[in-house]
Amino acid sequence: MTRPVPLHSAPKDPPIPVRVKLAAAWTSFMFLYVYVDILNFYKPGVVDGILAGLIWKFDISSALLTIFLVSVSIPAMMVWLSMTLPVRVNRATNLVVASLLIPYSVFNAAGATWEWAAFYGLSIGLEVLLLASILRSAWTWRRPHEGAADAAAAA
């Protein structure tokens, strides 16, 4: 037998664990980060520069590509680390890495012309928004006993 649900009782979303929020934000950041780089190939002259052995103003070398690999590996590793590190280390790691990636993301606009302002403004804005979300989630992460105390006080 089914029991009718009153119209005024809307379903409630269960709280999302902080680890899941962080991993989701890092996953979104990683995809955005990679897709912005891929879309950058469509700018006139970028592929010609790569074929000539240059990326931006740098000669393509194993060292440069290793630096780029480390750069794109950071968000990928943060997805995993956000789900597996102990809370205290997890919180600190997310705060440090997200803080360091904000200026790194903004640097992507270096050398850009006004013609590309919308592209870089949107991509950097979205990246910084995701990083700010990570910082907020990590910064406001409650200790397990704080949540229990708040729930007991509310009862």
From TrEMBL:
The keyword Transmembrane helix applies. Keywords: Membrane, Transmembrane, Transmembrane helix. This is Uncharacterized protein. Pfam families: DUF6326. InterPro entries: DUF6326. The chain crosses the membrane at residues 20-42, 62-81, 93-111, 117-135. It comes from the Bacteria.
